[in-house]
Write a structure and sequence with these properties.
Blueprint: E1 4-5, E2 29-30, E3 38-40, E4 46-50, E5 56-57, E6 67-74, E7 81-83, E8 93-103, E9 110-114, E10 122-132, E11 138-142, E12 149-151, E13 155-156, E14 169-176, E15 185-194, E16 199-209, E17 218-222, E18 227-237
Parallel strand pairs: 1-2
Antiparallel strand pairs: 3-4, 4-5, 6-18, 7-17, 8-14, 8-18, 9-13, 9-17, 10-11, 10-12, 10-16, 14-15, 15-16
C-alpha cells in the first residue's frame, strides 16, 4: 500500500474529503502530529473533543472506565463538608476518598452521616490496629465505644486527627446502592492516621443504614473543632 506524507492534518472540509486506504488495509501516516479538535470512530460517534488547549469534553463512556470522579471538595477550617448532589441511581457504588485530612482540634475524629437531615438510623462496627512510635503499644482491638446499634448519630471514621500538618489521616469509604428502595444501605471504610498521640492507626468501620428509602446526601465533619485541611473526592463506580 502507498504512504501519504503530511506536515499537518487539518479539520475536515467536506468539499475536499480524502479517503485513505481500502477495507483490510492499514493506513500509515508519517507525520509529527495529527491535529483534530474532535475525534470520531468509523460510525461517526464522538470519542472525545478538545478545546485546543488539552481540556477534553464529550468523552465517550466507553473510554472512561468504571470509576468516574464526580466531585472534589477541599477542607479549609470547615465545620462540615457535604455532597448534596450527584448521589443517585447512576452508579451502583459511591466511593469517597479522603486525602491528608487534619483537624483544628487535637484527637478529633472525622465522622459521617447520610440522609436529608443527617440522622439516618444505622448499625455499625469498628475495630483498629494501632502502634505507637515508642513501640510501647501494639495491638488489635474491637472498640465498642465507636459503634452504633440503631443509632442516628455521626459515625466515626478517621481516628484521632491532629492539628499539625504532618498528623493527617487518609482513607476510603464505600457506600453501596444508596438509591435502592429495596435494600438497606451498606457501607465499608478503611483508613490510616498518623494520630495526635504519635500512634499509627489502621481503622476499619462497616455497617448499614437501616432504611429502604433512597439516600442522596452525605456529610463529613470532625467530632470536635473543624476539618482544617485535606481533600475529599467522590467517585461513582458502575457494577
Amino acid at each position: 500500500m502507498s504512504k501519504v506524507n503530511a506536515d499537518a492534518i487539518k479539520p475536515r472540509d467536506t468539499g475536499v474529503d480524502i479517503t485513505l486506504g481500502i477495507t483490510g488495509d492499514t493506513t500509515v501516516i508519517s507525520a509529527d502530529s495529527i491535529n483534530s479538535n474532535t475525534v470520531k470512530d468509523s460510525g461517526g460517534n464522538t470519542l472525545w473533543s478538545s478545546n485546543g488547549s488539552g481540556t477534553l469534553s464529550s468523552v465517550n463512556s466507553g473510554l472512561k472506565g468504571n470509576l468516574v470522579l464526580l466531585q472534589t471538595q477541599t477542607a479549609s477550617n470547615s465545620a462540615s463538608i457535604s455532597f448534596t448532589s450527584g448521589i443517585d441511581s447512576t452508579y451502583d457504588v459511591y466511593i469517597f476518598k479522603f486525602i491528608s485530612i487534619t483537624s483544628t482540634s487535637d484527637a478529633a475524629h472525622m465522622s459521617f452521616q447520610m440522609g436529608s437531615s443527617y440522622d439516618t438510623n444505622m448499625t455499625s462496627t469498628n475495630f483498629q490496629a494501632r502502634h505507637s512510635e515508642d513501640n510501647t503499644v501494639a495491638d488489635l482491638a474491637y472498640d465498642n465505644g465507636w459503634d452504633q446499634s440503631g443509632g442516628t448519630g455521626f459515625q466515626q471514621l478517621l481516628i484521632k486527627l491532629g492539628t499539625g500538618a504532618s498528623k493527617a489521616g487518609s482513607g476510603e469509604l464505600y457506600v453501596f446502592s444508596p438509591s435502592s428502595t429495596t435494600y438497606v444501605k451498606q457501607f465499608l471504610f478503611r483508613g490510616t492516621t498518623f494520630a495526635s498521640n504519635d500512634y499509627a492507626y489502621d481503622s476499619y468501620t462497616a455497617g448499614y443504614f437501616n432504611v429502604t428509602t433512597a439516600l442522596s446526601q452525605i456529610q463529613f465533619k470532625a467530632t470536635a473543632g473543624n476539618l482544617d485541611t485535606g481533600t475529599l473526592k467522590m467517585y461513582g463506580l458502575s457494577g
